[in-house]
Amino acid sequence: MGRHSCCYKQKLRKGLWSPEEDEKLLTHITNHGHGCWSSVPKLAGLQRCGKSCRLRWINYLRPDLKRGAFSPEEENLIVELHAALGNRWSQIASRLPGRTDNEIKNLWNSSIKKKLKQRGIDPNTHKPISELESFSDKDKPTTSNNKISGNDHKSPSSSSATNQDFFIERPSEFSDYFGFQKLNFNSNLGLSVTTDTSLCSMIPPQFSSGNMVGSVFQTPVCVKPSISLPPDNNSSSPVSGGDHVKLAAPNWEFQTNNNTSNFFDNGGFSWSIPNSSTSSAQVKPNHNLEEIK
DNA sequence: AAGCTGGCCAACCGCGAACGG
DNA sequence: CCCGTTCGCGGTTGGCCAGCT
Question: Which ranges carry the Myb-like domain (predicted)?
Fold first, then answer.
């Protein structure tokens, strides 16, 4: 089992492929397709096993392969997908056009893994290596601390406040960790999402509570909306495509969910606009990981 | 200049799943 | 259903190369 029967045959070459071999394989597959891999070496005139030919084609000769270094966007996507899919490299690769599972696996093992460790994140679990016990309850913001009124930051009487764009933005320290820079959603009423606890121990003090920076509310909470999408989110209205929340009401509030014991519980938190009669939420992640799963 | 070390990456290995007679 | 073969995947290895001592 396992090893192909052809591999036991003698005179089969192993190791690096020569340009001549590549040419033979490329010509054969271009003209005839690969068909049954075990017959490819014979038909192409190669002293290789079919398995080796298949690997060479998939990882190197395929015309749709993208060459060159991975972009930060690709790396972020890999981290995101790995968090959702684990070491299912072929599934991850299928979401990165032109990249092979082998290539992604190598990148993960040689580079990304290291970067995550340097940030104190366990690459297997995507959680802090020190885990959350270092983040004692007394250090966590209380519910009242988390309640942030828009009026504290913007004048409610200001006409700009009525339809001001707000969005949650992660601290820049994490900008190359997650695939989304900002939470994408379109809701003029409110939404519920789940907080990501994996970065709690990494939160810089200046982000221990929300800050308004210009019109941007910065929060240490790294939201993973894709994980917490409601199952019936298909019924949501179309997303406007922006990184912003349009606030239709003059007053707004950011507070923890009453059902959660504190800000960083997995239970979640919510945006809400007081006196709003509607509770529906519309969330649009960059990548619907639930769907992928 | 030579030897050492670590990173990168192509390719191999082993296994389970799928297929087909 | 069984069994041999093939496919596809993930883990691992080993060679090459650049940087360092």
Answer: 9-61, 62-112
Q: Which residues pair with A216 in a beta bridge?
A: A213
- How deeply is A99 buried, as exposed, middle or buried, from its count of CB atoms within 10 A (0-12, 13-18, 19+)? buried
Local structure of residue A126 (DSSP, 8 states): T
Q: Shortest CA–C1' contact from A40: which nucleotide?
A: C6
Count of positions (residues) in chain A: 293
Q: Is the CB of A32 under 7 A from strand B?
A: no
- 8 Å CB contact between A193 and A277: no
The tokens describing A101, both together, are 């599972």
User: CB of A241 under 7 A from strand B?
Assistant: no
d(CA A63, CA A117): 35
User: In which band, very low, low, confident or very high, does the pLDDT at A8 lie, cut at 50, 70 and 90?
Assistant: very low
pLDDT of residue A24: 87
Residue whose tokens read 């009669």? A277
A167, two tokens: 């969005």
Q: Residues A169, A182: contact at Cβ < 8 Å?
A: yes
Model pLDDT for residues A88-114, shown as the tens digit of each residue: 898 888 888 889 989 999 888 888 888
- Mean of per-residue pLDDT scores for chain A: 53
Query: With left for phi above 0 and alpha for psi between -120 and 50, is residue A111 left, alpha or beta?
Result: alpha
Going by pLDDT thresholds of 50, 70 and 90, the confidence category of residue A282 is: very low
Strand B bases contacted by the protein (CB, 7 Å)? 7-17
Complete domains list, chain A, with CATH = 5-61 (1.10.10.60), 72-118 (1.10.10.60), 137-292 (no CATH)
Three-class SS state of A30: helix
